[in-house]
Amino acid sequence: MGDKLDFMREELAAAKAEKRYVNIRTMDSPADGWMVVDGKKVLNFCTNNYLGLANHPELKAAAKKAVDEWGVGPAAVRTIAGTQALHVECEQRMAAFKQVEAALLVQSGFCANQAAIPPLVGRDKEAGAQDVIFSDRLNHASIIDGARLSGAKIVVYEHCDPASLEQQIKENLPNFRRGLMVTDGVFSMDGDVAPLDKLYEVAAKYDVMTMVDDAHGEGVLGNGRGIVAHFGLEGQFDVEIGTLSKAFGVMGGVIAGKSVVIDYIRQKARPNLFSSALTPADTAACMASVDYVENHPELVERLWQNAEYFKAGIQRLGIDTGHTETPIVPVMLGDVKLAKEFSARLFEYGVFAMALGFPTVPRGAARIRVMNTAAHSQEDLDQGLEIFERVARELDVI
Ligand SMILES: *Cc1c(COP(=O)(O)O)cnc(C)c1O
Q1: β strands within 185-226, DSSP E
Q2: 62-72 per-position pLDDT tens digit
């Protein structure tokens, strides 16, 4: 007999039948260049651990020290009793790193978008006013959710297209109270970079607020300082979103920008008001990570060298690597079944790299996404490329 949970059973069964069900692998070792995955030692190209810091001894030492000095949890939200001196120090550190006036630390990058967008724009039913968000077609899910949560009208402009942004602003802005332009810095499916200078120019021309989410740019672009530094726009954006969970290797989100904006968001952001502060261990490790990145520019260089080496190796096999401009290298295969089979064989031969297909990427644009890091040696990359070649031959890709 059926019951109220049948819709779940049916959906799960359908997903399994159509091979859409996500089988989640278990990591049996820390995030690093090599990892033990489902009990098997493999060369890892799946984590966002760009600089190899997720298992770094200096960061681990900072986290352990913070546990001894501050305990394991803050036991309160930031606005009641959860703001420890560590958080204040980390925020000043992040603001200095991003060369902006102020920063607010939140629980994750995902959370940062939920926190930052609704205070800036929304819908005021009593006043009969609504705001408008201009959002890149391929923006990250956390931006989309933050935008929806705000109640503002969402207008999508074409991917990385300043002319489309301008057209949408011209058409829509007059009908709304105020506007916000928001874009990913680096788009993680293709590794392409938003034309931040041109988007900024358009937004500034119409006095629209500007926001960029630099999750995949920090520690990578601009000698490690991120996309805003890469374009020489330090201090110009109203809001910069960051994550401490990718290149920085830890956990946490950052909202950075002008003091007035951060002050305002700090007062209003619901994750700041209603969810407990980041743990002392995370906060201390984040600070140690930012210090480490600043003091070790060779890590960023290594990351780019590795990425160029790997990309050239794939291109030498005659396989397309899309239009990446970052260490994210999509190995374009086209057919989703082929990409899945390719990924499964790579794993069998000791390489862990994810297949991405529709709806994550457009139909017919399935790929293996290789996340390069500074944690790999040249021998690692040679070994990885050899295995890519072997699988490509076996599956008649080349
Ligand atoms: C990964 C990512 C996030 C989420 O960051 P977390 O710290 O993992 O929550 C947010 N925005 C973008 C653009 C991302 O790529």
Answers
A1: 186-187, 192-193, 209-213
A2: 999 999 999 99
